[in-house]
Each structure stands twice: as structure tokens, then as C-alpha cells.
Amino acid sequence: MRLGQRMHILGLRLGWCRLRRNVRRALAPLPLILVVGLAGCVPATPTPEPALTGRVAWGATPVADARVDVLSDDNEVLATAVADAEGLFALESVPEGEFRLVAAWPDGAANTAPVTPVREGDSRSDVAVYLARELALTEPATGDEVGTTPHLAWEALPEAVEYRVMIFDAGTTEIMLDVHTVDTELTVGPPLQPGRTYGWTVTAHSEFGTDASSRTLLGSLTSEFRTASEVASSEAAAPAGLL
Predict the structure, then answer these.
(1) Contact, 202 vs 228, CB < 8 A?
(2) pLDDT value at position 230?
(3) Cβ atoms 160, 218 nearer than 8 A
(4) I want to staple 195 with a disulfide (CB 3.0 to 4.6 A). Which of 97, 148, 163, 229 is the partner?
(5) Looking at 131, 160, 179, which one is the last position of a domain?
(6) DSSP H helical segments within 42-164, as ranges?
(7) What is the distance of C-alpha 128 from the center of its chain?
């Protein structure tokens, strides 16, 4: 082979080697570029929407750090949430169909507000759950025997503007008295039937002329008494010299 041909072949080989080196250098960063590019294109996992949101309040006042439980028909706790500083809470999952919500005071005090039912088809957004304080009973003590016009009394709740007092026959559930008052005591009239057991409730409200709505309920108590029999009432009423 002539020298010129050999030089030509060597030149081709050297050119090919340089070309391969240049290609390697050009392609070397590509895997990193592709990885970075693909990582930037991966969509972020969306945050799931809460299954239920709501607000815990005492009347119109939000209650921070209140616990909210989801209850089954058997009172089994199915889920729990804690309200934030504005009384707002969110539950990531709730059961299908109907269930109930009940709140608990952060200080562990008894909550006398009724539970909040959530029925199928109800809104699962901005559900209002209420708290209420337990009113302190003054007289008569639960189960006491009293006259037919007993004196009822309870301790004041400073935030309340009105109290609703209801008396009902424990046997027939007939309502015997239903009055609104700004006072914390009441003498029953007209007289009740002697020898019967009566239940009575007091609810404290933040508005005048209210019904039993949880929206205005601040506190409540439930108790019962028994009226003395006719014989006992007659003996108590008769002058000592005539007995």
C-alpha cells in the first residue's frame, strides 16, 4: 500500500475518533438534563378535599380547641377533629349515610347542647356544631318532695338574657308550664297535681323570646321533683292545734 493511501486511512481513523469523542461530550449531560426536566414536569399530588367542614360555637362565639366527634347510631366514635383558633374544623373522612356530630369543651366541662344530626343529602360544608354549659341547680334538689306550688331556683349564667322554664308530667309527658323569664327563680302556679312526679328543665338563651334552638342556647339543666300527696299536703297546711 502506498504511503499516501496509508496517510489517508489514518486521517479517516483519527477523524472518526475525534467525532466519537465530540459526540460523547455532547451527549454526556443529556441524562441529567432529561431527569431534571422530567422531574419538573411531574404534577404535584393534589391535596384531597375534606369530607366535612364546620364550626364549633357557644351561641355566636367560636370555641377554639373544641373536640368534635362523629358518632354512629350506637354512639361509637368514628372520627375526631379539633377546632382551630376560629372554631373551624375539618374531617378528612366521614361515613356514608346518616351520622351525628357532638362537640366537647376544651376544659372538659359537660356539654348540654343537643347533638347535630347529619342526614343523607345534607350539606357537608360549614356545618354548625354547638356547645352549652350546664346550669347549676339551687332548689329543689333532684328527687325532693315539694308542695303543689314549688319554688324553683338556679344559678345565673352571666351571658344569658333570658331563661325558659318547662315543667312536664313525668308519667304522661304533658307540659304543665312553659314560661320565659329574666329571673333565676320561679314559683309555680297554678298548683300542680299532688302525689305526682314532675320533670323540669331550664334553658339559658342569648336572645329574647327564643325557642329551643341550639343557635341561641347557652346552658341548660334537667331535674325532677315529686309533689306531696293530698293527705300530706293537708296535714302540712293545717294549724298545729287542729291536728
Answers:
(1) no
(2) 77
(3) yes
(4) 229
(5) 131
(6) none
(7) 7
Q: Which residues neighbour 31 within 8 Å (Cβ) at sequence distance 6 or greater?
A: none
- Number of structural domains found in the chain: 2
Residue in 183, 154, 181, 178 with CA at minimum distance from that of residue 168: 178
Q: Which of 116, 131, 146 is the last residue of a domain?
A: 131
Q: Calculate the alpha carbon distances from 44 to 30, 36, 39, 47, 157 in Å.
A: 24, 15, 10, 9, 52
Q: What is the CATH number of the domain that holds 108?
A: 2.60.40.10
Same domain, 100 and 161: no
- 126 and 146 share one domain: no
Residues 107 and 141 in one domain: no
Coil/strand/helix, residue 61: strand
According to the model, what pLDDT value does residue 97 have?
83
pLDDT profile of the chain (243 residues), mean per 10? 50 53 56 47 63 92 96 91 96 87 95 91 90 96 96 95 95 95 95 97 84 79 94 55 53
Tally of residues, the chain: 243
What gap in Å lies between CA 74 and CA 108, rounded to an integer?
22
Looking at residue 242, its amino acid is L
- 180 and 202 share one domain: yes
